[in-house]
Amino acid sequence: MWFILKRKLLHRMVFQKARLYRNLSYVHYPGKDSLRSLTIGKLLEQAAETYKNRPAVISRSQNQTITFQEVLIQADKLAAGFRSIGLHPGDRIGIWAPNLIEWFITDMACARGGYILVNLNPAYLPKEIRTLINSVQLSAIVCPRNFKSQDYYKHLVEICPELPDCPRGKLQSKAIPTLRSVIVISEENLKGAFQYKEIESLASQGEIEKIQEYQESIDPDQVCHMQFTSGTTGIPKVPVQSHFQIVNNSYFVGKRNELDRKHHVICVQVPFFHVFGTVVTVGGCLNFGATLVLPASGHSPDKSLDAIRDEKCSIIYGTPTMYVDLINRQKVRNEDINPEIAVSGGAPCSPHLFHEMKHVLKLKKVKSIYGLSETTCVVFNSMFDDDEYHSTATVGHIGDHLEAKVVDAEGKTVPKGTPGELLIRGYLTTLGYYNNEEKTQELIDPNRWLHTGDQFVLEDNGYGKIVGRLKDVIIRGGENIFPKEVEDILNTHPNILESQVVGLPHERLGEEVCAVLRVKEKHSTDLNDIVSYCKGKLAQFKIPTRLEIVDMFPKTASGKIQKFKLVHYLKKSKNNQ
What we know:
By secondary structure, the chain is an alpha/beta fold. It has 18 helices and 28 strands. The strands form six sheets. The chain has a nine-stranded mixed β-sheet with strand order 3-2-14-13-15-16-17-18-19, sandwiched between helices. The chain has a seven-stranded mixed β-sheet with strand order 10-9-6-4-5-11-12, sandwiched between helices. Strands 1-20-21-22-23 form a five-stranded antiparallel β-sheet.
C-alpha cells in the first residue's frame, strides 16, 4: 500500500515539474527545411542560372534595370577589378552610398571576391566617417560623388588632404592609414580616385575566370559583412556576419514573407546598408528571384507610391515611420494600387498602424519582422496563415532553427506571458563585435545566449511581443512604465500621426512621462486632450504629464527613432525654459 502511494506521489511531482517547465518562457523551433552550407557568391550563381533575364533590380532614380545574369557578370568584373588595383581576399571594402544599382553590385562583388563588405550609412559626415573607417581598417571605399547635400569626394579630401596628390590606389593618409583606394560612382575624373566603371573595365578575361574558380575556396563560415549598429543609442558597434548566416537567415525570412509562392515585385523603401536591406531585401531577392524596385535613392513616400503604381509592386518593405508617411500621402493621392503584402521591421509597429496599412494601402496581409544586427537580421517573423491578432499584435513566430527564452534580472527563465529580457541562441548569432571583446562578452554569455536588451513577452505558441528596450523603461515613483504600451494608445488618437514616449527627470517622482507627437496637418492637440483620451485606457500613473509637438523625430537613415537624441533635446529645452 505504501509503495503504491509513494509511486502516485512521485508521478504527481513529475507531472507538476513537467507542467512547470512547459510553462516557462522557452521555445525551440527546428523548422522543416535544413540549414544550407552556401556562400552568397554561390547563391548568386544559382539565381543567375535559375532566373536568367528576370530583372533583379529596377532603379527608378537611375532609369536602369539589371537582370540576374547581368548582376553575376558585373559582380565578377568588379571583383576582378578590385584585385587588379591591389585588393586581396579578406580586405575590407566600404560602401558609403544610398540605394543604387552599384550598391547591389558592390555587395555581390565583395561576396564573389572574398572581400569583407563594410556597410556605411550614407548620412555619415566627415568626422564620423573618419572614425568608423579607422575602427574597421578599410582598404577601399566606394561612394557616389553626391547624394542630397553630401559631397562625398569633398568629404574624403577633407579627412585625407593627401588624396588629390596621391597615385590612384596608393593613398597614404596620416588620418586614415589603412585606406589605399577611393572609388567614385561618377563619370568625373577626380584626382586620386578611380571611376567605378573603370574598375570593372580593368579586369581581363583571365582575371574574371580566376574569380569564378575562387568560389570553391570561400568558406561559408567566412566573414563577409561588417554591419555597424544603427546608432539609436549613440556610438555604433560592429557586429560581424558570415556567408552562412546571411544565406540562411534570408532564406527562412523570404519563405515567411511568401517570396517562394510567386514572382514578387518589391517596393524597397528601406536602405540597403541596414540589415533589413542586406539580408531581408538583397538576400531574399537572391534566394527566390524577387525583383527589387528602388523608388528613389533616398526615402520618398511620393516616389514610393509612384513605384508601387507603375511597377505593380506586390510587396512593400518599410519601417513603421515610413508606413506612417506612405499612408499619409496615399490618403491625399488615393492612387490605384493593389499590393498584396507589407512587411514592417526596424522598430515596433503598433496594431493601429497595421490596421491603417491594411485599409489605406489596400493590402491582403501585413507582416512583422523582429531582430537585431547582432542576430544577422530576423529572429521572429509572421507566418503564412497568421490570423488578425498574430499578424498585428505580435512580432511573429520564432524563426527556424532558433531558441529563445525570456529571463528576469537574475537570469532566471520567467513563466510564459511574463515580461523579461529576450535571449536568443542559434546559427544567426553574430561572430562578435569587431575588435571589441569586452562588448562581445556582454552580448553573448558563456552558454552562447545572446542578450538582446529588449523587454519581451513569449506566448504559449512560439509567438512573441516586444514591450520595449530595457533602457527605455520609465520608472515613475517606483512604477515601471513601458513606453510602447503608452505609444500604442496614443497612436489610435484621430489627430496623431506618430508618437514617442520618453522619461524625463522629475524632482519628486524620479521620472515623468513625456509624450512627443507628430500631429496631422491642420490638426492640433494639448495635454488636457491627451490626458482625457488616455483615461480609462491606461492606469493613471502611465498617462503623460508632459507634451511636446514636433514636426519630425530624429531618426537613423534606416528609419529608427533615436530616443536618446529626443531626450537630450527635451532636457535642453526644459533647462532653457
